[in-house]
Amino acid sequence: QVQLVESGGGLVQPGGSLRLSCAASGSFFSIYAVAWYRQAPGKQRDLVASMTSSGGTNYADSVKGRFIISRDNARKTVSLQMNSLKPEDTAVYYCNVEIGTSRIGYWGQGTQVTVSS
Q1: In sequence order, which residues have a C-beta less than 8 Å from that of residue 67 and are 6 or more positions away?
Q2: Which helix (H) or strand (E) holds 31?
Q3: Residues linked to residue 86 through DSSP beta bridges, in sequence order
Q4: Distance between CA atoms of 87 and 58, rounded to whole angstroms?
Q5: pLDDT tens digits, residue range 82-113?
């Protein structure tokens, strides 16, 4: 019912910046929350940043002050601006959207971010 497509990943040097985008399509009326997760090889998938329908945000301690989550309701997109990137930020980044009060979740396919000199 809901499809999510991430884009914007790539290779950047430490200290660089990258902006990820997640485009949503399909039939839905309300969104409970949107979020970005990341997963490094051999590691669990961890929450990076989230935003509720009211605009409240939460960030992982490791990215606080460096990453910013935002949304564009007209374009049905959610973005993640990543600044001052570190090698430990290297991972596959996934977009997640929860729909309605029942919080039905949907995932994108993921986009690779590699931070290396």
Answers
A1: 48, 49, 59, 80, 81, 82, 83
A2: strand 31-39
A3: none
A4: 22
A5: 999 999 999 999 999 999 889 999 999 999 99
